[in-house]
Amino acid sequence: MTTARILDFIKNRRPEGPCLVVDLDVVKGNYHAFRHAMPDSAIYYAVKANPAPEILSLLASLGSSFDCASVAEIQMALDAGATPDRISFGNTIKKERDIARAHALGVSLFAVDAHEEVEKIARAAPGARVFCRVLTSGEGAEWPLSRKFGCVPQMAVDVLVYAHQLGLESYGVSFHVGSQMTQVDAWDSALADAKRVFGSLAKQGIHLKMVNMGGGFPTRYLKDIPSAEAYGKAITAALRKHFGNSIPLTIIEPGRGMVGNAGVIKAEVVLISRKSDNDDARWVFLDIGKFGGLAETMDEAIRYPIRTVHDGGEMEPCVIAGPTCDSADVLYEKNMYPLPLSLTIGDEVLIEGTGAYTTTYSAVAFNGFEPLKAYVI
Ligand SMILES: *Cc1c(COP(=O)(O)O)cnc(C)c1O
Predict the structure, then answer these.
(1) Non-local CB neighbours of 132 within 8 Å, separated by 6+ positions
(2) Which of 91, 146, 176 to mutate for ligand 1's pocket (most ligand atoms within 8 Å of CB)?
(3) Distance from the CA of 314 to the center of ligand 1, in angstroms?
(4) Domain 261-376 has what CATH class?
(5) What is the pTM of this model?
(6) Domain locations along the chain
(7) Could you give the 3-state DSSP secondary structure of residue 109?
(8) For 90-254, CATH number?
(9) How far is the CA of 266 from the centre of ligand 1 (A)?
C-alpha cells in the first residue's frame, strides 16, 4: 500500500539509492485488525519479518508480545519496551548458551521439536515452559516452510512427556501453516493434530494450556487476499470444532501480515536492454535485486506489485533483474512481468508490499552495494 505519507516522504526527502519506507500508521491498523479479528488470542509479532526499532516500540506500546528467534532479537524486543514475560523464544534450533542467556534475561517460554532440545532447555532454563512444534503440510502457502521445523504429532507427545519428566512445564503445541497462506481453512487440520496431542497428554495426567497457531497471515501482492476478519472466523470455528468448550489459551505470530503492506521500496531503473536485435524480451535492471532485499523472489515465489510513473500506458512483458554481478540475481524471468513500454533508464519505480522480509534479507555489501536502507515514518 503506497500511502500518501510514503509518497510525501519520497517526494520531499529524495532519499538517495534504493530504500524501504515503512508507514507506522499501516502497522498500527494491521495490529488493530488482528486484535479485533482474534480478540482471545495473544499476538506475538514475529520479529524477523522486520525488526526496525520504531516498529517494535510501536507494537510494544500497543500491547503486542514478541516471537524471537535469537538472543539478539530478544534484546531488540526488550529494548523496545517489551517485558520478558511477553517474549517467546520460538526457534526450535538454539545453542544451549543462548537458551541460558535468554533465561538470564527472564524469558521463560521456549519452542522445541526434539528430545535433544528439551534436554538443553532442562539444563539451561530449568522449570521453563515449553511448547512442541508439530509439522504441517504447508499446502496452499506461497512461501511454504518445509520439514525443517516441527515433528510428527505422535513424537510431540513423547517430547512433551519427556519435558515434564525433566522438570519443565509442558505448556502447549505450536505449528506454522506456511507463510503467505491464502486459504483461511488451513488452520483446521493443524488444530485437529494439536487437539490429539492435548488428548494423549491428558491421559498421562499432563494438562497442556496453550496452542501457538503461528503466522502465515498474508500480505496483498497482486492478488486479493481474505481479510483478517475472515481468518479470525475460520480459526475460531476450527478451535470450537476441535476443542469444544475447553478452548486453550491461544497465540498468533503474524510477521508478514503485520508489516508487509506497510512498506514500499523506492528503486531506480539502471538499464533497459535486449539480448539481440530481434529479442522479444526487454531486460529491465533495477538498483535492487535478490541480494539487496528482494530474496523472496527466489523461484519467483513472491510477485510484488510494481508502480511506475508511466502506469496506464501500453505494457510489455519484461525480464526484471537486479544490479549485482551474480547471474542468480534475476527477479522475474520464467514468468515475465508487464511493465510500461515508455519506462526508461533513470525512472523511479515503487515496489509495494515490501515491509516484511526485505531489510533483514539484504546482504551487507555484496558487490559493494550497501545494505537496504530503511526509513520508518
Ligand atoms: C517466521 C515465523 C512467523 C511469521 O510468519 P509469517 O508467515 O511471516 O506470519 C511466525 N512464527 C514463527 C515460529 C516463525 O518462524
Answers:
(1) 111, 112, 113, 151, 156, 159, 160, 163, 170, 172, 173, 174, 197
(2) 176
(3) 39
(4) mainly beta
(5) 0.96
(6) 90-254, 261-376
(7) strand
(8) 3.20.20.10
(9) 25
pLDDT in tens, the chain (377 residues): 899 999 999 999 999 999 999 999 999 999 999 999 999 999 999 999 999 999 999 999 999 999 999 999 999 999 999 999 999 999 999 999 999 999 999 999 999 999 999 999 999 999 999 999 999 876 777 777 768 899 999 999 999 999 999 999 999 999 999 999 999 999 999 999 999 999 999 999 999 999 999 999 999 999 999 999 999 999 999 999 999 999 999 999 999 999 999 999 999 999 999 999 998 899 999 999 999 999 999 999 999 999 999 999 999 999 999 999 999 999 999 999 999 999 999 999 999 999 999 999 999 889 989 999 999 99
C-alpha cell at 196: 490429539
Asked whether this chain's domains 90-254 and 261-376 adopt the same fold, the reply is no
CA 323 to chain centre: 26
The protein residue whose alpha carbon is closest to atom 12 in ligand 1 is 214
Ligand 1 atom index nearest CA of 216: 7
Neighbours of 222 (CB within 10 A): 12
Residues 6+ apart with CB under 8 A from 226: 182, 184, 218
- Residues identified as active-site: 325
Distance from residue 219's CA to the centre of ligand 1 (Å): 13
Closest CA to 254 of 181, 358, 350: 181
Distance 127 CA to ligand 1 centre (A): 26
Which candidate, 175, 165, 179, places its Cα nearest to that of 242? Answer: 175
Ligand 1: residue of 145, 179, 231 to mutate (most ligand atoms within 8 A of CB) is 179
SS3 label, residue 228? helix
CB 114 within 8 A of CB 151: yes
Pocket around ligand 1: residues whose beta carbon is below 6 Å from it? Answer: 46, 48-49, 67, 90, 176, 179, 214-217, 253-257
